[in-house]
Design brief:
Elements: E1 8-13, E2 16-21, H1 24-34, H2 38-46, H3 51-64, H4 68-72, H5 81-95
Helix pairs in contact: 1-3, 3-5
Protein name: Gene transfer agent family protein
Organism: Brevundimonas bullata
InterPro entries: Phage_TAC_11
């Protein structure tokens, strides 16, 4: 489902396969949502994400992959925290 050339990753979240992508817009949303500036600040913050931080990052990556409906409804979605963390890791790995 994901386009590897574009840096997309797929993960099963809330019972369905979802597309995630670390776009420039997603990166800006993550930096703003986490209150950091630049790649160095983001890298430091990513080392110890809280549950809230994880949802901020996941929502931005979902929006980057075109999954805005789930991104907007993450607070009430049945997303397992382990699946969320694995999805975030996959998306960052795909962007590398």
């Amino acid at each position: 489902m994901g386009n590897g050339v574009r840096g997309e990753a797929t993960a099963v979240l809330a019972g369905a396969e979802r597309r995630l992508c670390l776009t420039l817009g997603a990166l800006a949303e993550i930096e703003t949502g986490l209150g950091v500036a630049g790649v160095a600040g983001l890298a430091e913050r990513m080392r110890a994400l809280s549950a809230r931080d994880l949802m901020v990052v996941l929502a931005a990556l979902l929006r980057g992959g075109g999954e805005g409906v789930l991104a907007d409804g993450l607070a009430s979605a049945a997303v397992d925290p382990r699946e969320a963390a694995q999805a975030v890791a996959k998306a960052f790995a795909a962007a590398a």
